[in-house]
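Quick one:
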Amino acid sequence: MNRNIFLPLAAAALFMFSEARAQFVLSGEFRPRTEFSRGYKSLAAEDQKMSVTTAQRTRLNAIFNTETIKAKLVLQDVRYWGGQPQLVTNEDFATSIHEAWAEVQLAKNFSVKAGRQELVYDDSRMFGNVGWAHQARSHDLALFKIENEIKLHLGIAHHESPDITNNFYYGPDAYKNMQFLWFNKTWEKTGLSLLLLNNGVPLNISDEKQETRYSQTLGGRVTHMLSNATFAANLYYQTGKHTSGADISALNFLLEASLKNGISGGYEYLSGNSHDKYDKVYAFNPLYGTNHKFNGFMDYFYVGNHINSVGLNDIYIRYKYKKDKLGFEGHLHYFSSAGKISDSAKKYLGTELDLGVSYAVHPGAVISAGWSVMFAGESMELLKEGNHETGQHWGYIMLSVTPVFLK
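Output:
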């Protein structure tokens, strides 16, 4: 387009947005991260070399807000460096849509938000955007929201394949049907959230029949602030049917105390299966949470793994420091299995140390780095391939640049 034409049109558009009390923000994200790995997610073999890989997330974010309409579009490209030819035709690589939704106010304090969107609730244990992962997580659903003195959200998702001759779902998503109801109330020092989640996973019985197995997760989170500390507790129970057909009876609870000096500590329990109990599925599944946040940055548990396994006991202490442009954090985890691995195996799985540092070079430009070590126990070999004595290490260095192009 000729620049002489484009500039008046852009000025007119901005003027109309201003007159309508609209806000429009166009921003980006450039996030390359190099990772060093020898024993990440599973134990390294004795002769295993350390790998060094770089992946990058690139985003273009467009956000539009008025008093009655909100909309967001996030275009995203995720790739490993070297995974695309230098002389690319772009036939096999395409930018994806991470978010594309519109929210419309239907009445006072009542709105509907429909489209592809992130779900982030409470501490992200059951619903999180998994922002650490370059691809992150978003859902296709309709979200009905009532927000005044209380918050009440109803989410409804239904997936089917494009073949209109049946109602099968062969797609890549984790569920065919999903509904949830989330309630939140905040007082001066106390917060309460309650969650009811119904999750339906498709199971192909035959070429002519598909069955949906439903599980239910019920529970919530309580927080309470004192003058120098904040206390939090999670409690979730899972029931219903596993895809195997077995009944589910699983539990997750967390107790945590956070001091204002940056020190926090707690204990989390996720129930698991035992080798000598087969009557039910006792393994808790955190489903769509940001699991990288909870049980160690080396992702040995619940990050694409450890589902339907022996569960976990996690005793941890964390320290977080931030002053001006500099940030530091250190985490120490003590892991053991919740269920019995075998008659002779000990429950102790390992101790993990996570260290991280960040520096804000400029507003919107942050360099961060971290290093983690897993001191694995012998029983970890029964759950993960490799040798627990070889030394397990993982680290990263990341540049995150988030420019605002237009506001």
